[in-house]
Structures are given as C-alpha cells and as structure tokens.
Amino acid sequence: MINLKSSITEKGRYVSKILHFVGGEKRTFNNVDTHSIKQGQFTKFETKDGRLVMVNDKNILCIEIIQENQD
Fold first, then answer.
1. What is the mean pLDDT of the chain?
2. How far apart are CA 71 and CA 59, in angstroms?
3. From CA 25, how far away is CA 12, in angstroms rounded?
4. Alpha-carbon gap, residue 26 to 1, rounded angstroms
5. Which domains does the chain possess?
6. What is the 3 state secondary structure string of the chain?
7. Can you give the pLDDT of all 71 residues of the chain as single tens digits?
8. What is the pLDDT of residue 8?
9. pTM of whole model > 0.85?
10. Backbone angles phi, psi at 15, to 5 degrees
11. What backbone torsions phi and psi does residue 8 show, to the nearest 5 degrees?
C-alpha cells in the first residue's frame, strides 16, 4: 500500500480522534497510533492497546485531531 504521508503524523505518534458522523453522532478514539493509519473507503487505524478500528469515510463530516502527551 502507498504511504500517503498524512500530516496527522506531525502531531506525534499517538493522538485522539473525534469523528463527527452524518446525523450528528460523535465518537472519540484515544491513543490512535498515527503510524498505523491506512486510508481508503474504509480508513483503518490501530490504538495503543492493539484495537483495530475501521471507519466508512462516506459517513464522516469532520475529523478532529488532538495531540496527546508523548510519554
């Protein structure tokens, strides 16, 4: 897979992502490993504790990225 070199990696290795879905729902994911993000129709990423998350991009209105402490 081609590395798209997302600018999210500039925020650090681990970030929190708040996904705003069509219809007003929001979901927060903490400790997202920015090196694991793979973009496509379903964007995939892993969290620090090993969870794999897949998100259907067509249902997303906005994504907020929050830098976490880099312990």
1. 88
2. 33
3. 26
4. 29
5. 12-67 (2.30.30)
6. CCCCCCHHHHHCCEEEEEEEECCCCEEEEEEEEHHHCECCCEEEEEECCCCEEEEEHHHEEEEEEEECCCC
7. 555 567 888 888 999 999 999 999 999 999 999 999 988 889 999 999 999 999 998 999 999 999 987 65
8. 83
9. no
10. -140, 170
11. -60, -30
Amino acid at 48: K
Written as six digits, the tokens of 20 are 């705003």
Amino acid identity for residue 25 in this structure: E
Contact call for residues 54 and 27 (beta carbons, < 8 A): no
Q: What is the largest CA-CA distance in the chain?
A: 36
Q: Which amino acid is at 14?
A: Y
Lookup: tokens for 35: 């090196």
